[in-house]
Amino acid sequence: MTKETVLVIGSCGQLGTELVESLREIYGDAQVVASDIKKSDNPVFEGGPFEDLDILDADRLGEILQKYKPTQVYHLAALLSATAEKNPEFGWKLNMEGLFHVLNAARDTGIIKRVYWPSSIAAFGPNTERFNTPQYGAMDPTTIYGISKLAGELYAQYYFNRWGIDTRSLRYPGLIGYKSAPGGGTTDYAVSIYHDALTTEHHTCFLKPGTTLPMLYMPDALKATLDIMHAPAEQIKIRSSYNLAGMSFAPEEIAASITKEIPSFTISYEPDYRQAIADSWPAVIDDTRATEDWGWKPQFDLDAMTKDMLKNLKPQYSAEKAK
Ligand SMILES: NC(=O)c1ccc[n+]([C@@H]2O[C@H](COP(=O)([O-])OP(=O)(O)OC[C@H]3O[C@@H](n4cnc5c(N)ncnc54)[C@H](O)[C@@H]3O)[C@@H](O)[C@H]2O)c1
Questions:
Q1: What is the separation of C-alpha 205 from the centre of its chain, rounded to a whole number of angstroms?
Q2: Which ligand 1 atom is nearest residue 174's CA?
Q3: Which domains does the chain have, with CATH numbers?
């Protein structure tokens, strides 16, 4: 086990909750400092240090850096696509200023040796090639979230080129997991559909049939995140953000996959404002560069994910029914 200390910012969200758990298995509980603007009651956070941190407060970040001297920072705090559309000014402020504070701290303190910051498929736009979306192509995001992700990618690359900050990033597709709730993204339906399957056996989808989007099962997302952070620096040839893919499906395809396990499950459609966001995103991502540069390979396809999601969520609902 290494003695490195890791700081996770925005640790109580969908990704952070699981990432903290994985990082503590690797580095040890005491070496992984979780932080967030709000505390979570998830037992994961009882196992090691937790600090209150609003990433818009650069002085508070500085205090935490001096206290723990983390050599790696995972900066996950953000306003996600659907939520940011409701408050675009604040979405831009949080997503950009938060990143500046982390990058500036890495440059100015010398404590942080490596920074992970996720981008998103939202950085693409309507003129992006929708199928086999290339690493380098048209990027004209239409949401404030996507605009902040594209700008953030270029900033991360700038800090690498100009000040040698070891920045690493992935363009996540929609993330699907059972351990924590999604935080207001356009792909959230693909999580709630599994909860509905085990409760009402019916899901009303906020996207219409045929809306194919790229998705990634959480164990694969964690693997990709840890793989890129643990790869030797010379293998990281893209310092903006890597395309990353797992699977692509439309709502009726995930419904069909669930029906194989729960034959009585049904789906209906009531598209809302999130349809326009989804329509501006790619359908299938080409992640060849991630495979070539640092060996990326996902393990889960749609049916394997469905089986695993239902298996892991079922005990939660059986326990609730028994109460
Ligand atoms: N979940 C997805 O499908 C997805 C897809 C693509 C990219 N991403 C990116 O991955 C990262 C993590 O996403 P997530 O799904 O875990 O998001 P989430 O919304 O579930 O979690 C974000 C966390 O940040 C915290 N936070 C908010 N404002 C903060 C502040 N001012 N200071 C400190 N913490 C603050 C929130 O309390 C929350 O715990 C984000 O950068 C997101 O853009 C997520």
A1: 21
A2: 3
A3: 6-174+218-243 (3.40.50.720), 177-215+245-286+294-322 (3.90.25)
Angle, vertex CA 295, rays to CA 293 and CA 296, nearest 5: 105
Measured in degrees and rounded to the nearest 5, phi and psi for residue 65 equal: -65, -40
- Give the pLDDT confidence of 227-284 residue by residue, as tens digits: 999 999 999 999 999 999 999 999 999 999 999 999 999 999 999 999 999 999 999 9
From 74, 145, 178, 189, the catalytic residue: 145
CA of 259 to the centre of ligand 1 (A): 31
- Mark whether 145 is an active-site residue: yes
- Per the CB < 8 A criterion, the answer to whether 158 and 206 are in contact is no
The DSSP call for residue 221 is H
3-class secondary structure, 132: coil
Instruction: Express each pLDDT in 122-172 by its tens digit.
Output: 999 999 999 999 999 999 999 999 999 999 999 999 999 999 999 999 999
Regarding the beta carbon of 153 and ligand 1, being less than 6 Å apart is answered no
CA 185 to centroid of ligand 1, rounded, Å: 10
Q: Residue 184 C-alpha to ligand 1 middle, in angstroms?
A: 9
Local structure of residue 133 (DSSP, 8 states): B
